[in-house]
Amino acid sequence: MLRHAFFSDFKSGPKLHFWGDAADMCVLAKFLEEISRQPTDSAISVPGLSVDNFRVIVRSLRRAAGMSKSNPNAFEWSLDRETAMDFSEKVSVLGDCKSVGHQYLECGTPGEICVMVSCGEYPDNLQP
User: For an engineered disulfide with 10, which of 15, 34, 36, 106 has Cβ 3.0 to 4.6 Å away?
Assistant: First the structure.
């Protein structure tokens, strides 16, 4: 099952980390592809298990702004259609390769939280 958690200092800084196996990467890639087809201003919860009880909401906007903490219990990943499709393709490569690897998904917005997606690198019981 796809898992996600916020790590305040993981690999040189704060990261919202998604991890799992190749099948989980395919689920996330399809989810991001679906975001690229959503009307602007729609919001959808990311599939998978939150290890730290934070919700992650993806919001389709006209301009990508990246990942941010939206309230004490949630993160908001603001993506435009092109960025969501680009991220979908990057995550899809992890699922297609069926091997160990990771991708960093960033929009380049000042202050955004880096999103790290990894396949086969970390155990299911990884804790922040």
Answer: 15
Identify the three-state secondary structure at position 92. Answer: helix
Question: What CA–CA distance (Å, rounded) separates 29 from 88?
Answer: 4
Tens-digit pLDDT profile for residues 67-124: 999 999 999 999 999 999 999 999 999 988 777 899 999 999 999 999 999 999 999 9
Within 8 A by CB and 6+ apart from 114, the residues are 13, 14, 15, 16, 67, 104, 105, 106
- DSSP 3-state of 79: strand
Please name the helix (run of DSSP H) or strand (run of DSSP E) that holds residue 6, with its range, or none.
Answer: strand 3-7
Q: According to CATH, what is the number of the domain 3-119?
A: 3.30.1360
Cα–Cα dist 88/49, whole Å: 19
Domain locations in the chain?
3-119
